């Protein structure tokens, strides 16, 4: 059992790859085979496993989400922190706050095209804190 | 390794905070550092990590979901248990049936504004059964 | 700690039940009580816990997703592999790449109506590789 914190500084809405940081944590843990759990301690940013080859995939995901939960949507009552406040919560709820990834041979056993991303849903920059827990033998 | 059941009695569609019950299970497990896994054994209610300060967030999430998968939607064939039957399955599939939460210093290591909720998607009251598994050292 | 691979041959878009294969892995692991983690190593197919009694539920879920992220949607830029390329990524991001299921008495502790499915989001047949990790005592 091995646990550490990870801080990701976002520069507004968009996705930020953290595969290398997670892989480093796995290497440091000395776990040969088991699971790596990643948790984001916020409700207006989330985690995503996504195709890591063509950046257009993540751009299209932004388009999709922006249409599904538009900023300033008059249906939303909770607008304390601005027009992107409630859409950020919706986008978080529709994606993941925690990911659990297999570890094999002291490495993340991801597919060839899978990358791990923090998805910032607010337009402002934020300091996002993650807890990484690695369990195994 | 520690495992227990939790029963949540819902009073129809809406979200019900269970952070305290989960935190109690963690305390009882005596696990100092590890993971707490929460599983809901149903497909018409789900789990959610959500902002726990302003109840309008959860009200807006209801509005969003009610528009996305409307009760009585004529596209749906599976209506055995009524107009909210299929929308409940859609809402479950779009959210979480299991959550895995970090445990640190014998406590849930949640963010300041994160609460754990059972999200009932049916209009009737239901008895929802959860399995809580805590692993660590 | 027990880990194995599972290959699921899909015959195009649709959901394929894998509850029996996962249950067999649990039986083989000899874990009495703990967690079974299922991970799909792709970003255009995903995992789903779904009602396993009436096939119309899964048909309605297809209808819902086809309307939400339509094939050939002109909003999408990433169309390298055809009109179902980007919708497959959207559907994956909105559902699950990993599931964690409780194990009790050497069995999956699922609800009566819960089945585990691979959800193929592409129209062509694919060979989908899963990693199953079982932890416990």
Keywords:
41% strand; five-stranded antiparallel sheet; alpha+beta; homotrimer; 137 residues
What share of the residues of chain A lie within helices? 25-40%
What characterizes the major β-sheet of chain A?
A: 5 strands, antiparallel
What series of H and E elements makes up the topology of chain A? EEHEEHHEEEE
What shape does the CA trace of chain A take? elongated
Beginning-to-end CA distance, first to last residue of chain A: 9 Å
Q: Compute the CA-based radius of gyration of chain A.
A: 16 Å
Mean pLDDT of chain A: 98
Low-confidence stretches of chain A: none
Which chain pair has the greatest contact? A-B, 30 and 34 residues
| Major β-sheet strand ordering of chain A | 1-8-3-5-6
Oligomer: homotrimer
Structural class of chain A: alpha+beta
Number of helices of chain A: 3
Approximately what portion of the residues of chain A adopt beta-strand conformation? 35-45%
Number of strands of chain A: 8
Question: How is this structure best described in words?
Answer:
Three copies of one chain form a homotrimer. Chain A has three helices and eight strands, in the order ββαββααββββ. The first copy, chain A, has about 140 residues and is of the alpha+beta class. In chain A, a hairpin with a 2-residue loop joins strand 5 (about 100-105) and strand 6 (about 105-110). The termini of chain A are close together. Chains in contact: A-B, A-C, B-C. Chains A and B meet through strand 3, helix 3 and strand 8 of A and strand 4, helix 2 and strand 5 of B.
């Amino acid at each position: 059992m091995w646990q550490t914190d990870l801080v990701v500084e976002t520069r507004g809405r968009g996705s930020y790859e953290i595969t290398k940081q997670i892989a480093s944590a796995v290497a440091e843990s000395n776990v040969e085979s088991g699971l790596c759990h990643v948790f984001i301690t916020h409700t207006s940013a989330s985690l995503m496993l996504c195709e890591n080859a063509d950046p257009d995939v993540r751009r299209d995901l932004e388009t999709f989400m922006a249409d599904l939960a538009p900023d300033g949507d008059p249906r939303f009552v909770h607008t304390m922190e601005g027009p992107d406040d409630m859409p950020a919560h919706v986008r978080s709820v529709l994606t993941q706050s925690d990911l659990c990834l297999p570890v094999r041979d002291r490495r993340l056993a991801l597919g060839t095209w899978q990358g791990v991303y923090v998805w910032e849903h607010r337009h402002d920059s934020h300091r996002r804190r993650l807890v990484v827990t690695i369990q195994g033998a």
